[in-house]
Amino acid sequence: MRKRKPKLRVIHPDPRYGDPMITQFVNMLMFSGKKGVAFKTFYKAMDIVKDRTNEDEHAIWKKALNNAMPQVEVRSKRVGGATFQIPTEIRAKRKISIGMKWLIRFSRSRSGKGIAEKLSAELIAASKGEGAAVKRKEDTHKMAESNRAFAHFRV
Q1: Does domain 34-153 have CATH number 3.30.565.10?
Q2: Are the C-beta atoms of residues 44 and 5 closer than 8 Å to each other?
Q3: Torsion, Cα of 21, 25, 26, 29 (10° steps)
Q4: Do 23 and 100 meet the contact criterion of CB atoms below 8 Å apart?
């Protein structure tokens, strides 16, 4: 067992919007420690979002993230030789990180040219309540709902 909780790392706000959650998003987007490249890609995607929607791109990003964040998830637990999928609430920080990871993962798997183009398309779709990341959230919620009978096994 741990003696004490580890110190939370301070995430500095990004230069353009002053939002630490964007820095966290860019850190997840980053490959091989190339943070500058990741920031350029993200800002390019935000510019594309602004051009296509003629709205505030930061608000669209926030809305997309909120639409992709799951509220519950299922965890496996063995009880007497059988494995049950038990629905559990998700902590706030985990919700955010899962939503970000899903947005990035599904934007990478989209068709298109360049990650900025793909990311902007996924953000616009997620802000409208469409897209693969939002579909994954809905599937997760459906699975939790269908396994609600096993909630009494909760850890």
Answers
A1: no
A2: no
A3: 170
A4: no
Torsion of CA 78, 82, 87, 93, to 10 degrees: 30
Per-residue confidence (pLDDT) for residue 94, from 0 to 100: 93
Residue whose C-alpha is closest to residue 134's, from 108, 87, 99: 99
d(CA 103, CA 125): 10
C-alpha pair distances (Å), 144 with each of 63, 77, 80, 101, 137: 23, 14, 21, 20, 11
H helices of the chain, where? 20-29, 35-53, 57-68, 92-108, 115-127, 132-146
> What token pair was written down for 2?
């741990």
67 neighbors 136 (Cβ within 8 angstroms): no
Average pLDDT, consecutive stretches of 10 residues, N- to C-terminus, the chain (155 residues): 86 92 95 94 94 92 94 87 87 94 94 92 93 93 85 70
Distance CA 111, CA 7 (A): 40
Q: Residue 74 in contact with residue 144, Cβ under 8 Å?
A: yes
